[in-house]
Write a structure and sequence with these properties.
By secondary structure, this protein is of the alpha/beta class. 42% of the residues lie in helices and 13% in strands. Helix 4 links the parallel strand 3 and strand 4. The mean pLDDT is 95. Bound molecules: 4'-deoxy-4'-aminopyridoxal-5'-phosphate. InterPro entries: Aminotrans_V_dom, Cysteine_dSase, PyrdxlP-dep_Trfase, PyrdxlP-dep_Trfase_major, PyrdxlP-dep_Trfase_small.
Amino acid sequence: MIYLDHNATTRPLPKVISAMNACMQDCWGNPSSKHPLGQEARRELAAARAEVGLLLRAQPVEIIFTSGATESNHHVLHGALHRPEMPRRIILSAIEHAGYMKSALRLRQEGVTVDLLPVDSAGRVRLDALREMLQQDAALISVMAANNETGVLQPVREIAAMARERGIPMHVDATQMLGKLPLSFAEWGADLMSVSAHKLHGPKGIGALVVRKGLTWSSLLSGQQERARRGGTENLAGIVGFAAAARHARETLETEAARQTALREALEAGLIEQVPGVTIYGAEAERLPNTVCLTVAGMSSDKLLDRLERRGIFASSGAACSSGGSDPSHVLLAMGVAGNVALGAIRLSLGRDTQLADISEVVATLRAVAEANDAAGSNPEA
Ligand code: PMP
C-alpha cells in the first residue's frame, strides 16, 4: 500500500499509542477529583498542555482541549455571535474547511451577515478584498493557515495585523499546517486558533482551541473543566497522545518538511513530464510540503482514484470530508476552476512514511492510467 492521504488522517505513532495505553492503565482518574488519583491525572494534563504549547508556540493557559478542529471551529462561531457589543457580521475565507463553512453559512438564516473573502487563481486570499470588507465592522475574521485540498498557505500574519488594527478578533484554522511547517500562535498575532491531533500522527477525537490570553470567548459547552471554557471530563488519554505526537513533530519537523518538499517537487516534476493532460492547482503559491491537488484531462476523480486504488495507492478527491458527494470542490471553484474540471480533482498528500520509490510508482501509475484513458478515447467503460 502507498498511503497518500495524510491530509485526511495519519497513522498514530507507536510512541503515541504506548503513551495512551499507559495513561489508560495507570492514570485513569478524573483530573477534577481532589484525591491522589485525580491529582495525578491533573499533573499529566498540565504536562501535556505544556508540551502541546511548545509546538503551537502558545502559552499553556491559552490552550483549551477540544474533540478536534471541527469543535474548535464551532466554538469560534459561537463565541463570535455571543459578544453583544459586536455586530452580527462575520468574514470567512471562501476556502475554509467544508464543515465549518456549512455551519457559518447556515447562520445567514438567523440574520447573520456572512461575507466570503475571495481567493486569487492560485488559491491565496485577496488582501485587497479584505481591506474593502473591513470598511465595515465585523465580529470575526476567519482564515485558515493552509488549505486542506491544495496546501496553499495564507498570509496569516498580514491578516492578523489588519484585524488587530480594526479591533476585530482573528481566527486561524491551522489544522493542516500543524506538524508540517513551523508555526507560532504568539508571532502570528491571531486571537484564536484551531488544531487537531490526528493530522500529526496523534489520535483522532482530540484537538485544541487556542484563545489569546486576555480575550474572553463565550463557551459552547458549559462546565468547570478547562477553566470553565469547555465543559466535559477531559479526554486525558487523547490529550496525552496529542502531547506525544506534538513532541515528535517538534523534534523532527524541520528535517521532515525539507524531505517532503523534495519528494513533492520530484512528484510534480514527474507528473508534468510524464502524465498527459495533468494540471496542478495552487502551484504558483507557497504550499505545504506534502500536498498536490491535480486533475488529468478527461478523467473524473472517481475513476482516477479507482485506478490508483487498484494498484494499492490510496488518495482522496479534494477534501476527504466531502468526498462521496458529487459536488465540485468549493475551494477549486473559488479559484476560478470550471465546475466540470473541478469534478476531476484528486489530492495526493504525502507523509512521514512516503519514500522516493513511492513517488516513482505513483508517477508511473498515473502515466499508465492517463495513457489508457487517452487510448480508450470516449469509451466510458475503459
Ligand atoms: N479544518 C481543516 C483545515 C481540516 O483539514 C480538518 C480535517 N479534515 C478539520 C478542520 C476538521 O478536523 P477534525 O477532524 O479534528 O474535526
